[in-house]
Amino acid sequence: MAEKHVKNGISYLGPEASFTHLAAARVFPEGALVPFPTIPECIEAVAEGRVEYAVVPLENALEGSVSLTVDYLFHEAQLYVTAEVLSPIGQHFLVHPENADAESFEAIYSHPQALAQSHKFLFYTYRNTPLEQYSSTSAAAKMVSELPERPIAAIGNEFSAEKYGLTILHRDIHDFHFNHTRFFVLSKTDHKLEIPGHEDQIKTTLMISPPKDDRSGVLHQILSVFAWRQLNLSKIESRPLKTGLGDYFFIVDVLEDESATMMRGALEELAAIGCEVKTLGSYYVYKNS
Ligand SMILES: O=C(O)C(=O)Cc1ccccc1
């Protein structure tokens, strides 16, 4: 098992029973999982060597990228992706059992992604109730469990309901059925987590900064590097470089190992056309049920 080799623990966005905790438990079922209150703190813990791995949410099928994670990986830390965990996400409306019959709620707390994923339900059912952003779904659930005297609610998963003794007042309130989140398992060293049960397809994530001269057709040039080599892309996204309006870098997921001949050629050619490439490494996908 992977955790036999994990000496120093695994950071995740806590507290217990967050979606990130469930993702971390998929790849490290018996690992020393250490909760941190924010995503940057999880990433810093692994960058500074206080833990060996960090598990962080990267992208949600309904809401898109978690920009905090993407930007931190690009601007702040040189870390590698050792695995991806793909988890189905079910959002529920959680209340303290003492408030299960409340007519209305003072406020609804959750992680911004969870609030956004449940937007339609909240709009049609609790239009006049303030929505309050919280550091994670499980932190919101924990808080609701500690304040029975306040008629407040949290949005989170079934495990939070169980762990913190909450009642599920409304089940499956996320707006679209296909609600999945991708999580990255990060490390300071470039390697693949290889434990039983991964998907066959290998992936490589690259962060590509185009040449500074802003010449026309540069995105086309970048894409052709992959196209003529028949390297399939499963994602391309632009993020601000934060150097000026209109300056972007591209996050590209390629369905190939970075050590493959075609990939090495692609990386060389990207450098030759003036791109700066930060590779996050190659990894397998682990599906969570
Ligand atoms: O808040 C959590 O539980 C997290 O782990 C972050 C998150 C929030 C919503 C969907 C997926 C991950």
Automatic annotation (TrEMBL):
Q: What class of enzyme is it?
A: lyase
Question: Taking every annotated instance into account, which residue ranges of this chain make up the domain Prephenate dehydratase?
Answer: 9-188
Annotated ACT domain ranges read 207-285
Question: What Enzyme Commission number(s) appear in the record?
Answer: 4.2.1.51
InterPro entries for this protein: ACT-like_dom_sf (IPR045865), ACT_dom (IPR002912), Chor_mutase/pphenate_deHydtase (IPR008242), Preph_deHydtase (IPR001086), Preph_deHydtase_CS (IPR018528)
**Quick one: which pathway?**
Amino-acid biosynthesis; L-phenylalanine biosynthesis; phenylpyruvate from prephenate: step 1/1
In terms of superkingdom, the source organism counts as Bacteria
What are the entry keywords? Amino-acid biosynthesis, Aromatic amino acid biosynthesis, Lyase, Phenylalanine biosynthesis
List all membrane-crossing ranges.
none
Q: Name one GO molecular function term.
A: prephenate dehydratase activity
Q: Which reaction does it catalyse?
A: prephenate + H(+) = 3-phenylpyruvate + CO2 + H2O
Q: Report the protein name in the record.
A: Prephenate dehydratase
Source organism (scientific name): Planococcus chinensis
Q: Which gene encodes it?
A: pheA
